[in-house]
């Protein structure tokens, strides 16, 4: 099993992308092999997530920056599959963020919470067939959404109508006040 993981790690480091190009540049300048540099950086990140101050920020950056970058690339590509993959990630990320907003005050006190959260987010964005966001979307989010879609559509339409009416009222009032101030001057 470890040999298989090691081979996958080596293959990942030999792919051509921004991170591996950066690692190659650092390897060239320092003489340290990129697999050792990558392992050191991953170890530091892991230790920081376990014991560091501000682990929440680091975890949120990991869960946001890489997926945001790949989402922009997906928007710019012609393929639909990558759009679907990243939209699925953001839906699950949104549900997770809402749930976490209510539970974070308790969960953050658990040892290694941010390391676990970071592992969860990496699982959700991982480019594998057992991707966490796809599993959670198709097994949890989608069935609940389909069961309550009519109610949700009604609520969204009602809120949209109210927001449009409020915007119209505020705009008319602002125009009336501007005209009234113009007359007085």
UniProtKB/TrEMBL annotation:
Membrane topology listed for this record: Multi-pass membrane protein
Cellular component, GO, one term: membrane
Compartments, as annotated in UniProt: Membrane
Domain of life: Eukaryota
Key words of the record: Membrane, Transmembrane, Transmembrane helix
Tagged with keyword rRNA processing: no
Residues passing through the membrane, by range: 45-69, 90-114, 120-138
Protein's name in the database: Receptor expression-enhancing protein
Organism: Oncorhynchus mykiss
Lineage, uppermost ranks: Eukaryota, Metazoa, Chordata, Craniata, Vertebrata
């Amino acid at each position: 099993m470890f040999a298989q993981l090691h081979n996958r790690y080596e293959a990942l480091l030999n792919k051509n992308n921004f991170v591996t190009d950066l690692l190659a540049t650092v390897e060239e300048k320092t003489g340290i092999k990129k697999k050792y540099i990558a392992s050191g950086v991953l170890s530091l990140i892991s230790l920081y997530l376990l014991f560091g101050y501000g682990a929440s920020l680091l975890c949120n950056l990991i869960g946001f920056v890489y997926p945001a970058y790949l989402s922009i690339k997906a928007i710019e590509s012609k393929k639909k599959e990558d759009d679907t993959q990243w939209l699925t990630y953001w839906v699950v990320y949104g549900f997770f963020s809402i749930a976490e907003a209510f539970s974070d005050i308790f969960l953050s006190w658990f040892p290694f919470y941010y390391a676990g959260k970071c592992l969860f987010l990496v699982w959700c964005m991982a480019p594998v067939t057992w991707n966490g966001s796809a599993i959670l979307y198709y097994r949890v989010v989608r069935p609940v959404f389909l069961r309550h879609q009519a109610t949700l559509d009604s609520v969204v339409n009602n809120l949209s109508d109210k927001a449009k009416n409020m915007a119209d009222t505020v705009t008319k009032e602002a125009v009336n006040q501007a005209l009234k101030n113009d007359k007085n001057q």
